[in-house]
Amino acid sequence: MASAMAGPMGAVIPATERTRLRRLPARASHDRAAIDAILDEALVCHVGFVHEAQPYVLPTTYARVDDVLYLHGSAASRMLRGLREGVPVCVTVTLLDGLVLARSAFHQSMNYRSVVILGTATEVTDDSERLRALEAVVEHVLPGRWRQVRRPSAQELRATMVLRLPLLEVSAKIRAGGPLDDAEDRGWPCWAGHVPVELTALAPVPDGVIPAGAPAPRLPFQGRSEP
Fold first, then answer.
1. What is the pTM of this model?
2. Residue 53's CATH number
3. Could you say which DSSP state residue 182 is in?
4. Domain residues for 106?
5. DSSP run (H or E) holding 59
6. How many domains does the chain contain in total?
7. If we measure between CA atoms, which residue out of 67, 169, 66, 161 comes closest to residue 122?
8. Is residue 39 part of a domain?
């Protein structure tokens, strides 16, 4: 089974001119463990690139394995074919942790954990690494799922492109806590504070042709009240 090992405790990814946070630098983190934790918890990333002078930002699934982020999709994908040719890429991941309700519109905000990755992706052509990457993507969504599903066929593998993006230029930005109201607004007559938010899966919905005895999936973020 492919695994995403967290970076060494205390390890730091050096900041570069492109990843150094200039606005609110106290919210920046280059701690490898913090970055890995955000990437491992989130399910969707957004891939930013330029194709024929037109910027695009597209959502997709991904997986982190050690110090590499894997992206995959159709071999006919304009995004993947462009990235394979060396187009610079910016990948972002965001976890929404709460709504920050301030006493002024100006200080209204959100609590979040986010990661930005800059670099150049390369195509994975080694068959073993491609299969490990696809396994990692499946396991990232639902641990243990790879053991349950049919493996990709040779035709499906030919129709799939896998890219690897090294975690070399990476930064995290994190906000937590309540509103930062101005002192003169503290007496404003409205509720203020923050509302925690988290991703919760509802009860699985079967497709109607499940064999008897097949257990329903249990996601790490599934609501406790759901069966």
1. 0.87
2. 2.30.110.10
3. -
4. 25-196
5. strand 54-60
6. 1
7. 161
8. yes
